[in-house]
Amino acid sequence: MRLHRNLCFAVIDGLYKIFNENEYADKVVQSLLKRDKRWGSRDRGFVAETVYEIVRYKRLYAEIANVKEPFDRDNLWRLFAVWATLKGIRLPDWKYFEGTPTRKIKGRFDELSKTRKIKESIPDWMDELGVSELGEATWSKEIEKQNEQADVILRTNTLKTTKKDLQQRLASEDIETEFLPNHPSALRLKERANVFRTETFKDGWFEVQDASSQLVADFLDVHSGMKVVDVCAGAGGKTLHLASLMENKGQLIAMDIYESKLKKLKVRARRNGVHNIEMKAIDSTKPIKKLHGKADRLLIDAPCSGLGVLRRNPDAKWKLQPEFIESIKQTQKEVLEQYSKMVKDGGKMVYATCSVLPSENEKQVEQFLNSEAGAPFKLIKDKKILAHKSGFDGFYMALLEKKSN
Ligand SMILES: C[S@@+](CC[C@H](N)C(=O)[O-])C[C@H]1O[C@@H](n2cnc3c(N)ncnc32)[C@H](O)[C@@H]1O
């Protein structure tokens, strides 16, 4: 592979913003990709993937390059040189690479790779937490998998098309896909591509949604005509799925504490041809109390550490703090206790997270069932998805039923 100067500069600029200005990697990459209209898909792929890879392996590369934060631009070029050397890419004779000790880099890599937290590039506290929650063997495999690039998975919008027709139409736009066993609406891209540019996307035939995430709406067992509340709806990935499972019939109430997120859902719902969603921002306890005892189904897609989706958000490794995880667990406890009151007798609810930590998942459910608010509920089933076992995002979902009086 030959390195192109303007693409490498884009990578360095992106890393500077992510590491030194605390910007989110996905936002930085999005804006980098708009920098030069002449870039083809390969150039764009190089910029995006290289930025993500260096963010992913920041700790390992920094130790090999012997540089410390905050990184100046020379430091970032040294990280880049480590990345390129380990990839077997020949370094051009640019001044940034002068004196790069190629052999030493490989030796340091072999040495440092013996220590998991450095090899997998995670903070000490995260490694300790992972081991204490999942045990050495499982954590080692999980965190290794979480460093791989995630596949692009689509969810067919069954309100508009079928999986087969979607596959054919995408093929006509040069995007080849395959079906995934046990994921009824999912298609996996055979090669990465910017699917958002396709006419198929603009017509609302699919959404991009990981295969594990697609199991959550199915888990809730919704039917046409029901009253369903999605109380942590965000921009509505799962709300849209629920709407298509309900065939646009019944009442679907999407709630979140951020109105800005619900506004995004509005745009997506229009594109998806969904018209049974009502959006309500949670600005007090009132909108929740009004729904006490009314919902046939409730989805609590709870805010969480996101430790199951590090493949998609590698910068979360550096942005997450242990104090945040502790406080989010308290929020999970509160949302379970408060929002579960919306479920009617005989109704069902799903509690889900994109975390692999038992303390955010099954332990949270156990604690809820032992609380006063949880007493009327029983656990029907739960599912723990680890990335290294499934090949998809780490997720947890529990289906609970409120006993009839
Ligand atoms: C995991 S995300 C939801 C993702 C979304 N369901 C989807 O499928 O795209 C969790 C959401 O919970 C929201 N949230 C955080 N605290 C909340 C609270 N106390 N009540 C309701 N929503 C909350 C966040 O704004 C965020 O959108």
Automatic annotation (TrEMBL):
Q: Does the keyword Transferase apply?
A: yes
- Tell me the Gene Ontology biological-process terms attached to this UniProt entry: methylation
Q: What class of enzyme is it?
A: transferase
> What residues bind S-adenosyl-L-methionine, as annotated?
256, 283, 301
Annotated InterPro entries: MeTrfase_RsmB-F_NOP2_cat, MeTrfase_RsmB-F_NOP2_dom, RCMT, RsmB-like_ferredoxin, SAM-dependent_MTases_sf
Annotated GO molecular function terms are: methyltransferase activity
Residues the record marks as active site:
354
Asked whether the keyword rRNA-binding is assigned, the reply is no
What keywords appear on the UniProt entry? Methyltransferase, RNA-binding, S-adenosyl-L-methionine, Transferase
PROSITE patterns assigned to the protein according to its UniProt record, in alphabetical order: SAM_MT_RSMB_NOP (PS51686)
- Report the EC number(s), separated by commas if there are several: 2.1.1.-
Q: Which domain of life is it from?
A: Bacteria
Q: Which residues form the SAM-dependent MTase RsmB/NOP-type domain?
A: 142-403
One Pfam family this sequence matches: RsmF-B_ferredox
Question: Which family does the record claim for this protein?
Answer: Belongs to the class I-like SAM-binding methyltransferase superfamily. RsmB/NOP family.
What name does this protein carry? Answer: RsmB/NOP family class I SAM-dependent RNA methyltransferase
